Structure formats: structure tokens, C-alpha cells
Amino acid sequence: MGSRYSKAAVLGMSLLLLTSCGGNSSSPAPSSPGYTPAVSPSETIRPDEALQLEPTLEQRELFNFINTQLTGPDGVYTNLQETSESAEVATGHEILSESASLLMEAAVRTRNQELFDRQWTQARRTFDMEGGFSYRFSPKQQKQFNVNAAVDDLRMIGALLEAGQVFNQPEYTREADKYGKRFYKNNIKKDYMFDMFDNLYKVVNESVTLCYIDLSVLQKLSISSELQENLLMNMSGILEEGYLSDSFPFYETRFDYKTGKYSSEGINSVESLLTILHLAETGRQKPASISYIKAQVAAGTLFGQYTREGQPANDIRSTAIYALTAMIGAVLGDSSLYQSSIERMNEFRVTDPASPLYGGFGDPAARQAYSFDNLMALLAYSYKAP
User: Fold this and answer.
1) Model pLDDT for residues 139-178, shown as the tens digit of each residue
2) Between vectors from CA 36 to CA 325 and to CA 380, what angle results, nearest 5°?
3) pLDDT at 213
4) Quick check: 122 and 104 in contact, CB under 8 A?
5) Which helix (H) or strand (E) is 307 found in, with range?
6) Rounded to the nearest 10 degrees, how much is the dihedral formed by the CA atoms of 29, 19, 5, 217?
7) CB-based contacts of 287: which residues, under 8 Å, 6+ apart?
């Protein structure tokens, strides 16, 4: 496809750098014996089934921090600290579709229709393009980036579907169907999903990031049963065959359709945990993964990055890591994993009432607070485990 395709590939790499998370391929994807549609585990507490509970003190304080300190006219800031908004990746008060989709999901799970309405209206205004939802918007430059991020589009579509049920609003369901068909048209090629669609050049990249593959939403897209079966068989195969080993039960980072191979510069815990969450939501989690997560959470030794052999590449722990393990625990009905994860996550809370970051998650000394950490924590609080 010449220079146009090369530019799209570069944009795709920029997107991958952001997510600390091609054309038609002649290389086969990993084989799969077939996709058997799975239902969520019976213990899963879904937003349309959960009893509405009074928000905890931590939930109220965190939402207040996000709403009053970390939010501007166009949405939730990527970081509390302002920047020139000219870097290769999102910084400062730039706005991400990731943040909008997480807040939409949290609003549904807490049955807050007013918040959902407000966030969805804002998200459409800020991110909606012809070919998808822009993954990033710069208020200072008034720039809407030309590519979407499949994981965030799917999260928005899933939140709309849930909102249609929870709030008994068929309009949400219709919009989910409309945007789901758009997603299928642009981000799915020959029954395979791709990370991004370039709205300017009308091309996709050459790979899929495993944590982008949200099976629970893909199986709800408004497409024919034959198309859906093929798509789910292909993508579940890519997900499941990206498993590293029982000794280190995390997952590869991405699958390249052109080479037919997986690649990982390092194994990022957030990405693998999101992959495991997506598998758990459809009953496909590996028992070894859950045992490993439980042991590491209990010991407080779940770090940000590992080698492929399972050796820690750093000693960084983060809010988002424990938020994700809490969600995994809730989905599996494992109250001990949920509670211990929340306790670990809360170790990062800012509890000084004099701090401008009070109630949030961040570094008060540097006045740094990231949208992903804070919104993942808010979402984790909204899950409940028996």
C-alpha cells in the first residue's frame, strides 16, 4: 500500500506506546479448535444484576477528586500536571477515549444515569469521527487524532449495551448497535480484529494487542451469527495461544498478522491482567493465572513489568495493577482476591486532607495523578464480590 500504509503503521506504533494497554494477511493466525460461546461465570456480578449499594467513603472521595481536580470541559485529564500537549504520547490535560469509556462503565455499574448521560454526550462531542472514536484529543491544539483504539471503542460499545438494559433506555442499545457495526466495518478485516483504524488514510495496522481483545463485547456485536462465530473463533484462538506458560501464567503482548508471530518487548502486568480479565469474563481464564495472581497480591509483589521468564524487570507497583486483580476477583466470585486487591490498591490512596490530591491516587509531592490509575480504581470500587 506504499507510503500511506507506512504512515499508518507508524501511527499504530505510537498508539502502542500510549497503551501501557494491516492490510489483509497471508500469514495464518494461531489455530483454534473452535469457539464455543461462553457465558459469564455465574458468580459474576453484572451491573444489571447487582443490588445498588451506597457508595463507600473511598468511592465518594475518589470521584470528588476526579470530578473537581482531574476533569476539564472536554473530559478527564491524562495527568493533573499541565504540559504543552505536543509529545508523541498523551500528556497533561489531553483527553483520552480510554478515560471516557472507563467512566461510562463505572457510571453503569453504579447505576448513575445522570453521570452516564453526561459522559456519553461529552465523549461523542470530543471523540466521534467517521471511522471510530479518536483515541486522543488535545484541547490546547484543538486536535482530534485520526486513529482509534479498538479496546476503548469496544468498552464504549459495551457500556452502551449495559446502559440500555440497566436504565431501560432502548436508545442506548440502538447507538451500541450503530457503533458496533461501524467498529466491525473498520477494525475487523476478514474475521480478524486490528488495533486501530486510521480515519485519514482508511487503513488498519498489521497487528492486534492481546489486551484489546474484549471477547465479551465482540460476542454482542450486531452481526450475523456466521460472522460472529468466525470472529470469535479467530480472536479467542489468538488470545489463548498467547499464554506464556504455567510457570509464568501471563500473556504475550501482541500478535503480528504479517509474520504470524507473537512479540513482547517486556511483559507488562497491566496488559496481561486486562487480557486475563477479558478471558475471565467469558469463563476462559487459566487456573494457573488466578493462582499466581492471588499469591502475588497476598505478598504485595505484583510488579509492573517482567521478563518472559517471569523475573521482575522493575519493582514498580501501581494502583491500576491491583484495581485489575480486584476486578478479576469480582468476576470470578472470589471475595478474598477482590478484598485483598482493594486493600493493596488503597495503599496508594492520598489520605492527607490538606493535599490537593486528597481522595485520589498519585504523587502529592510531584502533583502527578494519572487518569488511568484513578479511573481504574473508581471502576474497581464499583465491582462487588460476594
Assistant:
1) 999 999 999 999 999 999 999 999 999 999 999 999 999 9
2) 20
3) 98
4) no
5) none
6) 50
7) none
Q: Is the dihedral of CA 321, 323, 329, 335 positive or negative?
A: positive
- The SS3 of residue 31 is coil
Identify the residue whose cell numbers are 495527568.
Answer: 79
DSSP 142: T
Looking at residue 255, what DSSP letter applies?
Answer: E
Q: At residue 114, does pLDDT exceed 50?
A: yes
CB 102 within 8 A of CB 119: no
pLDDT at 42 > cutoff 80: no
Cβ-count burial 247-285 (b if 16+ within 10 Å, e if not):
ebbbbbbbbbbeeeebebeebbbbbbbbbbbbbbbbbeb
Q: Count CA atoms within 13 Å of residue 284 on its CB side.
A: 27
Q: Name the one residue in this structure whose C-alpha cell is 452516564.
A: 116
pLDDT at 10 over 50: no
d(CA 128, CA 131): 8
| Among 386, 321, 314, 381, residue whose Cα is nearest residue 54 | 381
For CA atoms 138, 142, 146, 149, give the dihedral sign.
positive
- Please report, for residues 41, 56, 149, 198, 282, the alpha-carbon distance to residue 36 in angstroms, rounded to integers and kept in the order given: 14, 38, 27, 32, 10
Contact 271, 209 (CB under 8 A): yes
On whether the pTM is more than 0.85, the answer is yes
What does the alpha-carbon distance between residue 263 and residue 251 come to, in Å, rounded to a whole number?
A: 10
Q: What are phi and psi of 381, to 5 degrees?
A: -60, -30
| Contacts for 135 with CB less than 8 Å, ≥ 6 apart | 15, 18, 96, 97, 98, 127, 145, 147, 148, 149, 152, 196
Amino acid (one-letter) located at 5: Y
CA distance 105 to 277: 15
Residue recorded with cell 472521595: 61
Condensed to tens digits (0 to 9), the pLDDT of residues 222-278 reads 999 999 999 999 999 999 999 999 999 999 999 999 999 999 999 999 999 999 999
* pLDDT, tens digit, 9 for 90 and up, residues 339-375: 999 999 999 999 999 999 999 999 999 999 999 999 9
